[in-house]
Design goal:
With 226 residues, the chain is an alpha/beta fold. It has seven helices and ten strands. Bound molecules: adenosine-5'-triphosphate (ATP). Keywords: ATP-binding, Nucleotide-binding, Transport.
């Protein structure tokens, strides 16, 4: 396994609310994620898992402590730099936010278009990953014409098409049947094999546990097991 650091935090704290409603939800979180690793984040509902994922994904502002993603300390970045960094992170969240007016293929291509790659290559890659995820018959369908599990697979294809170095996932296989979730597990394994990228995910899927290098357990905003 490579030792290059993909993401790290040092004494990260996060609060919601203000004054009398202010509540701490992340308490001095310090951890590192290295290239080549698949790490699972567990913990009861409300323990702070999603908050941590969204901070690492530059979707939520860093409040206290330090976090560094792909070598960039988040506190030092401008909004433009943060959005460039965000484009290098693959997100798989439960609310998949597909564009309703675009087909499955066009939704995946949108992610590819963030980079200066010729359109035909992006289209080819988008089709390849959709096929890989068993959606070869749904490439030109719009989200409303797809089942929940198919929409989830389009969202996974969109998150992975650029082969991001950091992949953040919240229950990526929850809406999938056995075959589709098996395909996602294989895809994740292949993605980290090169030793260039890392995956941090919240999951209850046993197949993912078999794949993981480490499990981080959170309770009430703290990391209990490293
Ligand atoms: N936008 C918000 N405003 C106020 N409080 C929030 C907000 N989002 C989350 N919280 C609270 O912060 C705490 C941590 O929530 P978070 O969603 O990070 O936990 P979680 O471990 O991901 O939970 P789950 O497994 O249910 O998704 C919870 O007490 C939650 O109620």
């Amino acid at each position: 396994m490579s030792t290059s650091l993909v993401a790290s935090t040092h004494q990260l704290r996060h609060y919601y609310g203000q004054e009398e409603t202010k509540k701490i939800v992340l308490k001095d979180i310090s951890f590192s994620l290295h290239a080549g690793e698949i790490v699972i984040l567990t913990g009861p509902s409300g323990s702070g898992k999603s908050t941590l994922l969204t901070i690492l994904g530059c979707l939520r502002t860093l409040q206290e402590g330090a976090a560094s993603i792909l070598g960039f300390p988040l506190a030092d970045l401008s909004l433009t730099e943060l959005s460039k960094l965000r484009a290098q992170i693959g997100f798989i969240f439960q609310s998949h936010n597909l564009f309703p007016s675009l087909t499955a293929c066009q939704n995946v291509q949108m992610a590819g278009e963030l980079f200066p790659t010729p359109n035909r290559i992006i289209q080819k890659k988008s089709i390849q990953i959709l096929e890989r995820l068993g959606l070869e018959h749904r490439i030109n369908h719009k989200p409303a014409e797809l089942s929940g599990g198919q929409r989830q697979r389009v969202a996974i294809a969109r998150a992975l098409v650029n082969k991001p170095r950091l992949i953040l996932a919240d229950e990526p296989t929850a809406a999938l049947d056995r075959a589709a979730s098996g395909e996602v597990v294989k895809l994740f394994r292949q993605l980290v094999q090169s030793g260039e990228r890392a995956i941090l995910m919240v999951t209850h899927d046993e197949k993912m546990y078999a794949l993981a290098d480490r499990v981080i357990h959170m309770e009430e905003g703290e990391i209990l097991v490293r």
